[in-house]
Specification:
The complex is a heterodimer of chains A (394) and B (212).
Chain A (H helix, E strand, L loop, with lengths): L1 H29 L23 E4 L8 E10 L2 E9 L8 E7 L8 E5 H8 L5 E9 L5 E8 L7 E8 L10 E2 L10 E3 L4 E3 L3 E8 L5 E7 L5 E6 L8 E7 L5 E6 L8 E7 L10 E6 L6 E4 L4 E6 L8 E8 L5 E9 L10 E9 L2 E8 L5 E8 H14 L1
Chain B lengths: L3 H25 L4 H17 L1 E2 L2 E2 H9 L4 H16 L7 H21 L16 H15 L3 H15 L9 H4 L2 H34 L1
Antiparallel strand pairs in B: 1-2
Classes of the chains: A mainly beta (394), B mainly alpha (212).
Amino acid sequence: MTKIAANTWGTWAITCCSAVLAVLLIHAMGHRVEPWTFVVDVPKPPVRGDLQLTREAITAPNEPDFVHGPSIIQTPAGLLAFWYRAVYEGANNAELVSARFDGSKWSSSKVVTNSGTVSREAGITIKSLANPVPFRRSPNEIWLFFSASRLSGWATCEIMMMRSFDNGETWGPPKRLYASPFLNISHLTKTLPVRLSGNRIALPAYHEMGAKYPVMLVLDENGRVIDKRRMGNGGEVGFQPAIVPTGPTTAIAFVRRLKSSPLRNILITRTTDAGLTWTPAEPTVLPNPSGPISAFRYDETRILLAFNDDPLTERNIEVAFSNLDGTNLRRIGTVAQKDDHVPSDSVAYPFMIESEPGQYDVVFSRPNSKRAIDHVRFSSAWVTHNSEISAAQK
Amino acid sequence: MMTIADYLLDRSSAVLLLFMAGAALAALIRLSPAKRVCAGLAAIALAAVIPISTRSGFEWIASAIGRPSVPGLVLLATFAVATVIGRNLNDNRECRFATALLAITGFILYPGATGYLDYDTYALGYSGYVLPAALVAILVHALYRRYFFIVAALDVAIIAFLLSAGRSNNLWDYVIDPVAWLLGIGTWIFLLLRAVVRRSKASLSMPAQTSS
């Protein structure tokens, strides 16, 4: 009798508990993610600066290791560049390194973290690191996103994030971003995040294993993934999207083509609902050797992008203008060219920012032969001058 | 920084899988439950000392499979105990329902989330009513059938999600994981194969009975 009573009470208890949890769950999921809009930064670049480009090597001459995936951010003390370094691409014990630019010369490199430290601090074994992407969160706070491979190959990567509260002098422990239910693998990052309303950000990412496609991750103010949107409307699309907001609910994204794709152009996908859905990727008129594109809003009507202007090889880095819907693209000028005297040289992975009003910085790698990270600075005067020449030629 | 709970949870799937493998091998050669426990622990120790690439096999497996969901952890622990005591869970209705549910749910979630379908069902776990409604339906059915292990596992998963106790903000990650999915598939492949073998044995024995 007592056993029957206990069973009945137990059944009622678990039924009531389940009912309450069901109600709480439905309520919570209904109000979990507030709709977001893009924060649109429209700079008005003054025409300023030299008509000449300035070029420096960031890495020391005769760098012994493979260096790749550079990126930069402006700090009060000047530019801060990041890249990854390993014996070879994807090797064990990779390092994320940084260097500072005071306006005239680059400092020697400093290790931000390495595979061993990330493994220890994240509590899982990490093989290699790649593609650091800095993001300015507040005047002193920088978030550094990067890809960390758990097993072998980039398809086993997950995205991690480190924070600095002193503009990159010191870094906190890495935090894992959860983007996939399948062992949380095969998501990487490469391009600049975009601000969203409610202090959230959109992190452009991509899926690597099996089907490659671009992804927009929505992160809350603590850097937790609170939504994930597939870009390009299904299928094998391309990867490494560069998202540029054009309005509160509109944006375009330039997408790196797949190596196997018969189309040898930069792809473009658009959204009109703040990134909830994206149009199928379409080819643009600009070629792409399957290299990443770097892009941001230049002024009220134009987007500035840096890309490899060749359908097959990363032989140069060109800067171009796009209108806000990506239907009119026009080359402005070449900012980097491979050294024809050096066999298998290439200029790869451009990453461009507007470091100050009317001042633009591009970093890129020479991964194959020179093992170097280089920097080019140009001004809005150079852009205007070359743009006029380009328009006249057209 | 990583907490001890995070550290242990990240390795719990690897520990239980290796333990189960060792204990199952010991069960195959009909060792006692105590020896099966020893074999399970030996399997974990062996994985910890055998290197894969530049790290131990145990760390490699733990890094590969990550942490389990709540139902996944319950299922792994239940299978591990069943292996030790030699109980066949495949004839248990609650276990069959749980493994079928995990297998079907995995087929709904993983192909889309890994790019093999054009729609990513993982997005349903961030917000909206579809996934919670499906979970409530499963809870109601499990309560009706008095499958209290399933109800308890789902209740704990929902509590963990509501408290944001895990690293993920997605409801899917609290109710299923790839290891649990594969265990569900494996269980049902075994059940189907066993049914086929039994049927063929029965059909072979039928003519003999009629002739006698």
